Amino acid sequence: MEKTKTQKDARRDLLFGLGVLFAVIVIVALIGLFALKPAPVEIYGEAEATEYRVSGKVPGRIEMFLVEEGSQVRKGDTLVIINSPEVDAKMSQARAARSAAEAQNQKAINGAREEQIQGAYELYQKALAGEEVYRKSFERVDRLYQKGVVTAQKHDEVEAQYKVAQANVKAAKSQYDMALKGAQEEDKAAARALVARVDGMIDEINIAKSERYLTSPVDGEVSECFPHVGELVGQGSPVMSVVDTKDMWFHFAIREDMLNDVTMGSQLQVRVPALGEQTYPVVVTFIKVMASYATWRSTQTNGGYDIKTFDVKARPLVQIPNLRPGMTAVVVRQ
């Protein structure tokens, strides 16, 4: 009787042990199944904003910064003053050229001076008197020649002198008329053009002088100042960066096998870890394949294919308080 009871207890213990072993195997299998199950792939990105580089057209040295990194600025605010002695020197040269051009123009407008006009008139009168003398001499010689008193040679000599006197009268009269009339229209036009050219140079230099004061192109925040006060900057060299914090978006690099729900115009939910667990709606505004060097490729050797990565931009549909460029963003899968 005792032996039968012992056998039953042994069988029961064996069944219990097998049950416990089976339960352990099931639990281990379930744990392994969940442990080895791949976690869902999350899409990460970052916040970006439009950045403007402030640069000038005039080379020079940084004279003064009127703002510092982190300052809030408005469009048109003066940010930097550049010292450019070359511009001042060019202005002095231009003003001297303007004075010379104006004097030349005034001379063309006024014409000849009174002394020049009087001198031309006296030469004209002298030529007229000489012509009168030679005219009378020629008339006397011509009458005597008709009577055969003088030779033909003498007649020709006096006639030639009379013609020279007539030519002198015409030349003197032309000089006198020119002195009365003043400069030619072509000379006056050239003088006016010279004045206009110098005025254009002065306008250009005034514009260059205004370019010494660099202003903000937008309302925003100064993110970075590149040179220091006293350093030399060239033409077009960036001096400062201004970020438009009102023009922000999220940038993601997404593999093409994860683009099922990401299309142009589609809405996504984005969480910014730095701002807490709240999600924000965004709309996809840009999708473009990235360059080949930035793509992720499949590791399969048989039957695999290359998977490209796409550049995706999404803009918030609501204003996100305290959002800063560079903050991490996570796409929340529905």
Describe the fold and architecture.
With 334 residues, the chain is of the alpha+beta class. It folds into 3 domains: 43-48 and 241-332, Efflux pump adaptor protein, beta barrel domain (Elongation Factor Tu (Ef-tu), domain 3); 53-82 and 214-238, OB fold (Dihydrolipoamide Acetyltransferase, E2P); 92-206. The chain has helices at residues 2-36, 85-110, 114-146, 152-181, 185-210; strands at 43-55, 60-65, 72-73, 78-83, 213-215, 220-225, 232-233, 238-255, 267-271, 279-289, 309-316, 328-332. The strands form 2 sheets. It has a 6-stranded antiparallel β-barrel. A 4-stranded antiparallel β-sheet has the order 5-4-2-7, with no helix packed on it. Mean pLDDT is 78; it is low at 298-302.
Task: Summarize the model shown.
The protein is of the alpha+beta class. It has helices at 2-36, 85-110, 114-146, 152-181, 185-210, and strands at residues 43-55, 60-65, 72-73, 78-83, 213-215, 220-225, 232-233, 238-255, 267-271, 279-289, 309-316, 328-332.
Structural class label:
alpha+beta
Beta-strand content estimate = 25-35%
Task: Compute the separation of the termini in Å.
Answer: 68 Å
Instruction: Evaluate the radius of gyration.
Output: 50 Å
